[in-house]
Amino acid sequence: MENTLIAFQNVWKTYQMGEVQVNALKNVSVKLGRGEFAAIIGPSGSGKSTMMNLVGCLDIPSKGKTLLQESDLAALRGRTIGFVFQQYNLIPGMTALENVLLPLEIQEMDDRIAEKKAKELLNLVGLSDKMQNKPSQLSGGQQQRVSIARALACDPEIILADEPTGALDSITGQEVISILYRLWKEKNKTVVMVTHDLHLAQYARRHIQLKDGEMVRDSPNKEQISPET
């Protein structure tokens, strides 16, 4: 595949649980290119989150290789990958604006440029009137939108979304998936989403299905839908 961003070559991930070894991933090989929207699907315990952690360089394989493994992981995570988690992971004592500014401060961006960019991102996700609100003053959907803005702060190539609507009601979840869809469609971001929700997976262009740690399907989603339909 041209423009490969992520590649797994015969990847295994094994955990030691007491005296028992558990293979969370078994011999997975897959490539993801720039500008893809892929959903990693499968039931609980199928290896989805393990695969996401390896894609995001939060973990390393027990056997096999990942394309991103050879890089400076801290720098890579900061610049190339933006994370959107089910539980938002916002800092409670900081405003929405301060939460989005945080990764820019870590990258030592000029203060005025960073603030301008953070405000633009909050505007992009529809929160221009909530910039000074702390997480406790925001709804779940608004907190998730702050986390998306924060994920975009360093202009990453890849957005990893782990059950991004899992803690939200269906209407708010629709708003969040609409933002991710637009980032893929209009901003040409590579979006990799973990979900057990097959309806949510229908927004993705490609389905990677796991079962018991093995990849059982990798195919285009010919029935892809858009938030407008």
Oligomer: single chain
Q: How many discrete domains?
A: 1
CATH homologous superfamily name? P-loop containing nucleotide triphosphate hydrolases
Derived from helix and strand composition plus strand pairing, the structural class reads alpha/beta
GO cellular component, one term: plasma membrane
InterPro entries: AAA+_ATPase (IPR003593), ABC_transporter-like_ATP-bd (IPR003439), ABC_transporter-like_CS (IPR017871), ABC_transpr_LolD-like (IPR015854), MacB-like_ATP-bd (IPR017911), P-loop_NTPase (IPR027417)
Keywords: ATP-binding, Nucleotide-binding, Transport
Domain ABC transporter: 6-229
Q: What does the model show?
A:
- The protein has helices spanning 48-55, 73-79, 96-106, 111-124, 140-151, 170-187, 198-201, and strands spanning 4-17, 20-33, 37-41, 63-66, 81-84, 158-162, 190-195, 206-211, 214-220.
- It has one domain: P-loop containing nucleotide triphosphate hydrolases (Rossmann fold), CATH 3.40.50.
- A hairpin with a 2-residue loop joins β8 and β9 (214-220).
- The strands form two sheets. Strands 5-6-7-3-8-9 form a six-stranded mixed beta sheet, sandwiched between helices.
- Helix content is 32%, strand content 28%.
- The protein is built from seven helices and nine strands.
- It is an alpha/beta fold and 229 residues long.
